[in-house]
Amino acid sequence: MRNPEVILENLAKQSTKVEYQFQRLYRNLFNEQFYIMAYGRIAHKTGNLTKGVDNETIDGFSVKQIHHLIELMKMEEYQPTPVRRVYIPKKNGKKRPLGIPSFKDKLVQEVIRMILEAIYESQFSKYSHGFRPNKSCHTALSQIQTNFIGTKWFIEGDICSFFDNINHQIMINLLRKRIQDERFIRLVWKFLRSGYLEEWKYHKTYSGTPQGGIISPLLSNIYLHELDTYMEEYRRKFNKGEKRKTNPEYHRYASKASKRKQKLKNLDMSDGERNVLLQEIKEFKSKMHELPSKLAFDETFKRISYTRYADDCAPRRRTYATIFVA
Fold first, then answer.
1. Pairing between β-strand 316-319 and β-strand 302-305 as defined by DSSP bridges
2. Could you tell me which residue ranges the Reverse transcriptase domain spans (predicted)?
């Protein structure tokens, strides 16, 4: 059996080739070492002792069970169990649904997640910060702090119930852009359609990603990568001009202050004349501090930037034309 770290490294290398199509991914689900690696990555996480629909937890999970999973995978008979839905209280007094998958489904999902992350991570936008290695809400805020200087308009977006409304067919079609392995695609489809149990009543899932699923955040990033790509292209078309024009009024006071400074170099000047010039320079600088050095509305210069964290996005328009872009 090949080392899963080597396999993931090779996938990541191939991912830099934009037109590359990934094949024979499903066979990695036959590799015992992948499950052991996945186990090591999720074993320490809270919730693994919480029972799913099958009443099993991480406690007592064995290599024998991994072998059974592999046999099911080889025959394509593996079927994810529905997640168990419970409701937990929110700070505002309301409750939000929480999906609890079985541990074997978590393990399989972690293997899928590692494979998908190796394929897609290098392709994601630098403006995407949610659910990614070395990215967080802090890196999103840092990007805003750096890039949003001079902002006049902010447009904040929040996709309502995004994880519940992902279109399954669109999701699969997006995966097929890079993955030519229908067995692997069918496995992801099974998770998307696995449904949930609420008060022991089964509900089908016609949209959304698996509740509480390990693959859900990554699938959401693959889905929203289309938005990131669109915004980057829109930004390139929208941006105009190299730099803003200087504010004429600011320039006028700066010029006057500069001329007064030149006069101060005259050694034959009396103390009274020198004091007058110093006072004028002080007044001009005071005026300059009250004015922007660049034109606030410059029709020859406009900029738009964009930052996304999960399903929250903040396009920001730093444009100095009179057009509002929504």
1. antiparallel
2. 69-326
